[in-house]
Amino acid sequence: NDGLEGAVDALHNLTLLYDYEHTGLTRADIWATAALVAAQDAQPLDEEEAGRGYFFFMQEYSGRPTCDSPDGKGGPYHQMPEATANTEYVLSYFNDMFNLTAFETVALMGAHSLGNMHAENSGFEGAWVPHPKNLDNKYYGELLLAPWEQHMAPNGQYQWQKTSEFFITENTVDEIED
């Protein structure tokens, strides 16, 4: 996931401010807390749009082990799957690297309901869903709705477009078919 340097730097500054010696929070705890806050803040405020009530995410424990990297900002570097990787490769990668099941990997892919693709990071451009600031299940719903039209991405590869507002990549089409 290229393009996350700003978030990594911001979280690194928090880990320096709330160091383990004084707070008992590890870097992993701070990252987990940031993920929960982001998930909570990204919920649609309109209950009808959300299709359910509002969730409050709790931090249940602290003291998670922290992986170290040479710069002290994260864990060991792992080359993430290319945006063009097929479903079999993605499932295998997340199982081999993080011991995630296919179900857990598919749930994690739901994070694509947030944010946009940027050509400078992946070669692809556009949002995955119509409202890329909401963490919801619209990513999966949109994948199943047809029709999608194939267009050339800035990197010279194909990406699929439903409207002028949001896109999917070739490997996502493979996931739909699987």
Could you give a short description of this structure?
With 178 residues, this protein is mostly helical. Helices cover 42% and strands 8% of the residues.
Please specify the SSE layout and strand pairing.
Elements: H1 5-17, H2 20-23, H3 27-41, H4 47-50, H5 87-98, H6 102-109, E1 116-117, H7 119-122, E2 126-127, H8 138-144, E3 149-152, E4 158-161, E5 167-169, H9 170-177
Antiparallel strand pairs: 1-2, 3-4, 4-5
Number of strands: 5
Q: How much helix is in the residues?
A: 40-55%
Terminus-to-terminus distance: 23 Å
Largest sheet: 3 strands, antiparallel
Structural class: mainly alpha
Q: Report the average pLDDT across residues.
A: 81
β-strand amount: 5-15%
Q: Calculate Rg over CA atoms.
A: 18 Å
Low-pLDDT sequence parts: none
Placed side by side, the strands forming the largest sheet appear as: 3-4-5
Per the principal axes of the C-alpha atoms, what is the gross shape? globular
Number of helices: 9
Which sequence of SSEs, written as H and E, runs from N to C? HHHHHHEHEHEEEH
